[in-house]
Write a structure and sequence with these properties.
Elements (H helix, E strand, L loop, with lengths): L3 H11 L12 H10 L11 E5 L7 H7 L4 E6 L2 H14 L4 E5 L12 E6 L8 H14 E14 L1 H15 L6 H16 L8 H12 L4 H9 L6 E2 H10 L3 E5 L12 H10 L3 H12 L3 E7 L17 E3 L10 H9 L4 E2 H4 L8 H10 L4 E3 L17 H9 L4 E3 L5 E3 L2 H5 L10 H13 L6 E2 L2 E2 L6 H14 L6
Parallel strand pairs: 1-2, 1-4, 2-3, 4-5, 5-6
Antiparallel strand pairs: 5-8, 7-8, 9-10, 9-11, 12-13, 14-15
Helix pairs in contact: 6-7, 6-8, 7-8, 7-9
Length: 482
């Protein structure tokens, strides 16, 4: 191969990166985070989204399927992955998404602006000139009120993870085939875990690497740990690099990183004394918790900002399912009862004990026990007589062999026989009686084993009751559409 880029293209063609949907990257999550941080973005229902390094489109295609009024563009270095994504787009009949086999360094400089730009798993895994080119692309094409998502490996946490990476690279240094390198990596980690205690806590580091990666998929292990380039940075260094391209750090796509929930008050007070600005404060926090990965949101310095926090909740919607939320009062009981739908903040403030609900909701959001949405959700809480599952989820389930299906919340759900065989039947044309007969047929053929509390149903037992349970499970997983 002539260049690192050529090698990367060959590696992704040989072993595609088959990750699924990542909810943190969804425009609704990014817009909610931006709103709480004081930035008003374009409406999610009518936005323009660019994903750099989109792979097979498994993150971008579900967005396009649920936001038909928005436009989506994905680029990736691997032609093989783009072709696989285009086949899915064609099968779903989507017309609002375009997937291109394209080097980000060759992206047209005079192209359209985008309200949201996504770059997951790119920054730390490409050469310096490509990292720079990627931020330059974001700076050129981010809309005035846009938000860009960039994820990357961070120090100090990656100092520890590098030990396992270096060990795997050393053991597989003579192998060229990705599959062989993955096999050798697993071999040496398992071997190292059997070694006696070494210097200080060294074995703890090796054991952690072995346990973290033991169940990891081959594509994740190879691309995240064994690629030639893996360049972690300190958070402050990333912010400085972004600033060099006139991009400002807005916050983190993960709500818990927007607050200090995990930090005891005395320690927080000390950090506030040491830090002279928000960036230094975040860097201190990374040192204190050993953070190894971040998902930063960037915006333009000149973007119009407004007060964030509880004052920004007025036009947002709230969702949450954790039972302990109900103990916090009527507002939170209303939220739990509505799951999987989101309830508008305006409705919640009509509750009799809604005084001070705004700060409580923000606190619960930052603790990641609540979700914030910028629009009404169309998820079905109670299955209808002719239930209909999301088209993409039906397609994925029917494909066979799929590891996950994507819910309407943009979350990957591990596949199982019920998803594989029952979900594709929910196209809105079958009523419950027809679905019961289909399930009986699947059970009679041995294709699907129906159970109650883990015990197989016997002939003549209540299949209709089993169907009710299955449909409610699908509804709770946000798989049923209106």
């Amino acid at each position: 191969m002539d260049t690192i880029t050529d090698q990367l293209r060959a590696n992704y063609d040989a072993l595609p990166y088959t990750g699924g949907a990542l909810r943190l990257t969804h425009p609704d999550n990014l817009s909610a985070v931006a709103t709480v941080s004081g930035l008003s973005t374009a409406p999610v229902e009518r936005c323009r989204v660019l994903e750099i390094g989109c792979g097979q489109g498994r993150n971008l295609i579900p967005m396009a399927a649920t936001l038909p009024g928005s436009r989506f563009v994905g680029i990736d270095l691997s032609p093989r992955q783009i072709e696989a994504g285009r086949m899915t787009v064609a099968a779903l009949g989507l017309t609002n998404i375009e997937l291109r086999a394209q080097n980000l360094m060759e992206f047209p400089s005079d192209g359209e602006p985008f309200d949201f730009i996504l770059a997951h798993g790119i920054y730390s895994w490409v050469p310096p000139e490509v990292r720079d080119g990627m931020l330059a692309l974001v700076a050129r094409h981010l809309a005035p009120q846009g938000a860009a998502y960039v994820s990357y490996n961070t120090y100090p946490g990656w100092h520890l993870r590098r030990v396992g990476r270096d060990l795997m690279l050393f053991h597989g240094r003579r192998a060229t085939d990705p599959a062989e390198r993955v096999a050798l990596a697993r071999q040496i980690l398992a071997l190292a875990a059997q070694a006696p205690q070494g210097y200080s806590n060294y074995k703890d580091v090796i054991d952690r690497a072995n346990s973290d990666l033991a169940d990891a998929s081959d594509w994740y292990l190879f691309h995240d740990f064994l690629e030639r380039v893996n360049h972690p940075v300190y958070f402050e260094q990333f912010v400085q690099h972004a600033a060099a391209h006139r991009l400002m750090h807005l916050g983190d796509a993960r709500p818990s990183l927007l607050g200090w929930q995990w930090l005891p008050d005395p320690l927080r007070d000390q950090v506030m004394r040491f830090a002279t600005n928000d960036i230094e404060r975040e860097q201190y926090l990374d040192f204190l918790c050993g953070r190894s990965f971040r998902s930063s949101l960037l915006c333009r310095p000149e973007a119009v900002r407004s007060p964030g926090g509880a004052a920004a909740l007025t036009n947002l919607f709230v969702a949450g399912a954790k039972p302990q939320l109900a103990e916090r009062g009527a507002v939170f009981r209303r939220i739990v009862a509505a799951w999987p739908r989101a309830v508008s903040f305006a409705e919640l403030t009509k509750e009799s004990d809604a005084g001070g609900a705004g700060p409580q909701i923000v606190q619960a959001y930052l603790s990641e026990v609540l979700e914030l949405w910028t629009r009404p959700t169309d998820f079905i809480a109670t299955p209808t007589d002719r239930p209909r599952a999301a088209a993409l989820a039906r397609h994925q389930a029917a494909a066979g062999g799929a590891e996950h299906v994507v819910s309407l919340r943009h979350e990957s759900i591990s596949s199982d026989p019920l998803l594989q065989y029952v979900l594709p039947l929910l196209d809105g044309t079958r009523d419950r009686a027809m679905l019961v007969e289909e399930m009986k047929r699947l059970a009679a053929s041995g294709t699907l084993v129906l159970t109650r509390d883990g015990v197989p149903l016997q002939p003549g037992e209540d299949t209709a009751a089993q169907l009710d349970w299955i449909l409610q499970r699908f509804a709770n997983q946000s798989l049923l559409a209106s």
